[in-house]
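pinned: reference chain
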Amino acid sequence: MARQAIDIAENMAGVQLESVVVSMSGGRVGSERFVANIELSGGVVTDGEIARVLAAAGRHSVRDGRAVLHSLPIGYALDAAAGIREPRGMLGHRFGVDMHMVTADVATVRNLMLTVERSHLAVEAMVASPYVAGLAVLADDEADLGAACIDLGAGTTTLAVFLAAVSSCRWLRPRRSPRHHGPGPRT
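pinned: its structure tokens
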């Protein structure tokens, strides 16, 4: 049934789909904040050190039965200084990150992915519906400054608060900073 609907849509549009970005509103989508710290091995923040601190935050954030939809750095800390947006090249000893993680039930994520893949489409990414709705309606400066977006309808009503760092998801906003951390859900 889904494949038939996709075929009809492809024929009407005159294009052939290979992959899709799936917007997810079910599966008890939830938001959590995590902080992780590491010791800098060379005293300078490099791309490798940023990857290490992001991995450290990711290890502590994944709970059993949850899949990560978004893993977004809110800000970085270096020694006693917090709220750093771009730490590359800075010097210090202790490097940290404040992460915003959006998760969903792993069974719901896998079942939705399986349904899409049975329609012969690849899942490029899965995104939380309130997040993608906010990105769709907010101007760049509104997303950068921070805004609240209320998503009404379709049996769900959610409130999504957008912080400046949240707008850096590359596959949703290609003109932004290249700090995307993974193409899809991580289980």
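why pinned: The radius of gyration is 18 Å. Confidence is low (pLDDT under 50) at residues 162-187.
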